[in-house]
Amino acid sequence: MNISELKIPASLTAADLMTHDVVTVSPDDLVERVAELFQKYNIHHLPVINPLGLVVGIVSKADFLKVHHYFSIFATPQSEEMNRKLFRSLLVQEIMSEKIARVEPQTSLKRVVELLLCNQFHALPVVERGALRGILTTYDIINFFYKSQLQGEKNKPSSKLNHL
Questions:
Q1: Domain spans of the chain?
Q2: Averaged pLDDT, 34-49
Q3: Do the beta carbons of residue 132 and residue 143 sit within 8 Å?
Q4: What one-character-per-residue DSSP string does 29-86 give?
Q5: Per-residue pLDDT reduced to its tens digit, 72-124
Q6: Quick one: pLDDT at residue 158?
Q7: How does pLDDT run across 132-157, given as a tens digit for each residue?
Q8: By the 8 A CB rule, do 30 and 88 touch?
Q9: Left if phi > 0, otherwise alpha if psi is -120 to 50, otherwise beta: which for 120?
Q10: Rounded to whole angstroms, how far apart are CA atoms 75 and 4?
C-alpha cells in the first residue's frame, strides 16, 4: 500500500494525537534514570531536553537495551559488578540519538505517518521553536485509528466488530 492511499483526514495534525505530558531527561542525567523512567511510566521514548528547554535528542528503549546488552556480552563473574558500575555511570548524552526528526504541532498527520514509515521511526518529538510541546508515537497513531474504526463500526446499524 502506498502512503497516498491511506485514508487520513487532511484536517488531522500532530497536535490532535500527540501526548502532551511528556516524561523527559537531560543530557547530564545518568542512564540509570532512563531505566527507572522506562519502568515507572511504561514508555519507550524519552526526549532529551537541554537547560534552555530545547530538544537535543531522544533515547529509545531499543537504544537503551542495546547499550545494556553491550555491557553484558563479555560478562564473567569477576567483571559483572564492574560492568554494572560502568553502565550506571553512563550519561544520557552518551547514548542518545542526536540526529532526530521533529515535527511541529500543525504538521499534518499524513506527513507524520510518512516520516515514521519512511525512516522507520517509532516516535517524533513535537516542537515549537525548538521547545518540546509533545511526542507522537506509532502507538498514538495506531490507537487513534483503532478507536476510529470501533467508533465507525458502532455507527453502522447492523455491524459486528471483527476481532483483530
A1: 9-155
A2: 96
A3: no
A4: SBHHHHHHHHHHHT-SEEEEE-TTSBEEEEEEHHHHHHHHHHTTTT--TTTHHHHHHH
A5: 776 677 777 777 778 778 999 999 999 999 999 999 999 999 999 888 889 99
A6: 44
A7: 999 999 999 999 888 887 776 665 54
A8: yes
A9: left
A10: 49
What is the rounded average pLDDT for all residues in the chain?
Answer: 86
Neighbours of 145 (CB within 10 A): 16
Provide the CA 3 distance to its chain's centre, in angstroms: 21
* Cβ neighbour number for residue 156 with a 10 Å cutoff: 8
Quick one: fold of 9-155? CBS-domain (3.10.580)
Residue type, 120: Q
Output b/e per residue, 84-119; b: 16+ Cβ within 10 A.
Answer: eeebeebbbbebbeeebebbeeebbbbebbebbeee
50 near 44, Cβ under 8 Å? no
One-letter amino acid of 91? L
Lookup: cell for 94: 552518551
